Amino acid sequence: MTTTTAKDKTKRFTPEIRAEIDRWIAKYPPEWKQSAVMGALMILQDDNGGWLTTQLMDDIAAYLDMPAIAVYEVATFYSMYELKPVGKHKICVCTNVSCMTNKSDIIVEHLEKKLGIRFGQVTEDGRFSLKEVECLGACGGAPMMQIGKQYYENLTPEIVDAILEGLE
Amino acid sequence: MANEVCLRTLDLERPWLLEQYQSRGGYKMLKKILTEKMPPEAIIEEVKTSGLRGRGGAGFPTGLKWSFISRNAPGQKYVVCNSDEGEPGTFKDRDILRYNPHQLVEGMIIAGYAIGATRGYNYIRGEFWEPYERFEQALEEARSAGFLGEDLLGSGFDFELYTHLGAGAYICGEETALLESIEGKKGQPRYKPPFPAHFGLYGRPTIINNTESLASIPVIMEKGGVWFADIGVKNSGGSKLFSISGNINNPGVFEIPMGTPFSALLEMAGGVKDGRRIKAVIPGGSSAPVIPGEQMMALNMDYDAIAGAGSMLGSGAVIVLDDTNCMVKVLERMSYFYHEESCGQCTPCREGTGWLYRVVHRIETGQGRQEDLDLLNDVAGKISGKTICALGDAAAMPVQGMLRHFRDEFQYHIDHQRCMVGVG
Ligand SMILES: Cc1cc2nc3c(=O)[nH]c(=O)nc-3n(C[C@H](O)[C@H](O)[C@H](O)COP(=O)(O)O)c2cc1C
Ligand code: SF4
Ligand code: FES
Fold first, then answer.
1. B421: pLDDT confidence band, cut at 50, 70 and 90?
2. Considering only CA atoms, which of B138, B144, B120 is closest in space to residue B26?
3. I need a surface site. Which of B92, B257, B270, B322 has the fewest CB within 10 A?
4. Residue A2 has pLDDT above 60, yes or no
5. Three-class SS of residue B196?
6. pTM to 2 decimals?
7. What angle do CA B85, B102, B24 make, to 5 degrees?
8. What per-residue confidence (pLDDT) applies to B190?
């Protein structure tokens, strides 16, 4: 069996990325580097325009001394990890009960029409993608959506327009 | 008596800052406990006296849970906070994290001291970026002030606290799935026993509590268990955060005494939108069986009262539905959720949630058959109690509740291939 040398492992990421992952590693017991896998996946996903390649997952596996399959398992289990390209702005719309009864369907329809895409698709220019999500714990502001790290609540089609216009 | 516990700093301008929290007595109890070297047993006794029951949904007595840990057993122990907040309808822990993070930090340190744990993790759902940043800022402030680290205030007690971020999976709110997730694995619940008190995070003794449960601790210690218990009613000590949403004028989070009439809560939340009739209420998060509106108007918000009506107080997430809602559609959406979020480990849950969704979906779309209603009850019954974790029950209970109270709407869908509610 070949082992990856320490030097090989650290070469895979920039010093900044390494420092960020190391901050996660430091939170857990030394023999539990694997605990940092969720943090590492998110850091690399953000760095790679919002999605994860097999290469990136393999690099994480090497860096955290984990089998690659264990990293794939995590990446496929959690809904916030993307294994295919997404738009520069990933628009996540909640359609669970409190949002549904506050007309999230109108927001969804408006977005689909405006962007010309459905849930799970990316606009041709790569700027936007649409995703249906489950309750985001902001039902008091229904209907709501998340774009990037930001929540937007009490939406109307007009408010959605203004939000999208404000994005780069 | 509102906003006296978890939301006691809400009226301040930037309540999430350390000096603001301290201006309301924050960290006073921690200092007292550490400098007087209060016996840990006394803390656990006080929490037992308070009648505090787990605010994450199951309502297990918090003091009792803490007493299961053998404090003097050698080796590492952990305090874990559940800020995964994924039960549809629930949005209270988000406000604790955003507006009063220090009280959670203080509560977790006190819990660590009480059970002899020197490390804690707060598991925050991955979508909660703003709450995560607020909590991280609070950790930094607490560390600089000497409330986290080694030998806290010269007491000889060490405590470190970290955040773990989730990445989108409702099942990680289940306590053992959450532990798996911190360990860097997919979030699949463990068989119990062993319980986390004996075999928890990294195989070590662990207590895991909801955000609201832990954030209540500093105030319980300051004002006393009796004071807290007396705010509420028998079997339901204290006040509680209710997240109220749906078809109402002023949705939001309200901290009110246990046992408050539902009608009073509804009024605080501005009443039903557009003056419409209240048709149904889901009183404790989407897995709590639905209660018809008229019946709900006569109930109080406490564990026994809601259980007496065949439902549960759960996480205190109250979803109000007016008479424009089609109950078949509501159940269809809920069943879709549980099917999506099943981790797939147990056959009754993996297969059963799929069945439930498909059958409700065909009724909703006018393809329902007469035998479907019995089929739904049958499938729900075959999931209940036959799975590793409670997600199976959580998927079955709403189905049983809907068929108990709104069977006629399902029947109408089957007979007429359409909805009896005008707008559906
Ligand atoms: C499917 C499922 C999801 C859950 N989600 C949460 C949650 O988001 N937050 C929470 O505090 N508890 C949740 N729980 C309950 C936890 O398993 C556990 O009982 C709770 O965190 C214990 O804390 P408490 O006693 O302070 O309530 C969930 C349980 C199940 C079965
Ligand atoms: S009941 Fe469902 S969610 Fe829970 S362990 Fe079994 S399959 Fe997973
Ligand atoms: S139902 Fe949409 S945020 Fe909760």
1. confident
2. B138
3. B270
4. no
5. coil
6. 0.97
7. 125
8. 98
- Cα A104 to chain centroid, rounded: 21
Cα–Cα distance, B289 to B394 (Å, whole number): 9
Say whether A73 and B91 touch across the interface (CB within 8 A).
no
Backbone angles phi, psi at B242, to 5 degrees: -110, 125
User: pLDDT tens for residues B240-273?
Assistant: 999 999 999 999 999 999 999 999 999 999 999 9
CB B90 within 8 A of CB B285: yes
Nearest-Cα distance to chain A for B335, in Å, is 11
pLDDT digits 0-9 by tens, B129-153: 999 999 999 999 999 999 999 999 9
* Residue-averaged pLDDT of chain A: 95
**Token reading at B84:** 């995964």
Give CA B31 to chain center in angstroms: 29
All residues of chain A having their beta carbon less than 8 Å from the beta carbon of residue B87 are 135
Q: What is the pLDDT of residue A168?
A: 82
How far apart CA B233 and CA A119 sit, in angstroms, is 47
Q: Which of A95, A134, A152, A153 would best serve as a mutation to test chain B binding (most B beta carbons within 10 A)?
A: A134
Residue keyed to tokens 């209060």? B38
List the 243-262 stretch of B: residues with Cβ below 8 A of A: 243-247, 251-253
pLDDT at residue A11 in the model: 73
Counting ligands in written order, the one closest to the CA of B334 is 3
B420 vs B311: which has the higher pLDDT = B311
Verify whether the Cβ–Cβ distance A139 to B245 is below 8 Å.
yes
B227: left (phi over 0), alpha (psi -120 to 50) or beta: alpha
Q: Which residues pair with B149 in a beta bridge?
A: B159
Residue A132 near residue B83 (C-beta atoms within 8 A):
no
| A100, A101, A102, A103: CA torsion to nearest 10 | 60
Q: Tell me the helices (H) and strands (E) count for chain A, helix number first.
A: 8, 4
Burial of B416 (0-12, 13-18, 19+ CB in 10 A): exposed
B181 pocket-lining for ligand 2 (C-beta < 6 Å): no
Question: What is the token pair recorded at A118?
Answer: 């459905």
Six token digits for residue A127: 């700027």
Contact between B303 and B53 under an 8 Å Cβ cutoff? The reply is: yes
pLDDT greater than 60 at residue A1: no
Give me the residue label for tokens 């857990």.
A28
Q: Is the pLDDT of residue B58 over 70?
A: yes
Is residue A147 less than 8 Å (CB to CB) from chain B?
no
- Helix A68-77 vs helix A37-47: angle between axes, to the nearest 10 degrees? 70
Kindly report the number of other CB atoms within 10 A of residue A136's CB atom: 27
Distances (CA, A) of A57 to A37, A42, A52: 10, 11, 7
Is residue B322 within a helix (H) or strand (E), and if so which, with residue range?
A: strand B317-322
pLDDT at B423: 46
Q: Which atom of ligand 3 is nearest to the CA of A142?
A: 2
User: Which ligand gives the minimal distance to the CA of B245?
Assistant: 3
- Residue B424: the pLDDT is 41
Q: For position B73, what pLDDT does the model report?
A: 86
Amino acid type, B341: E
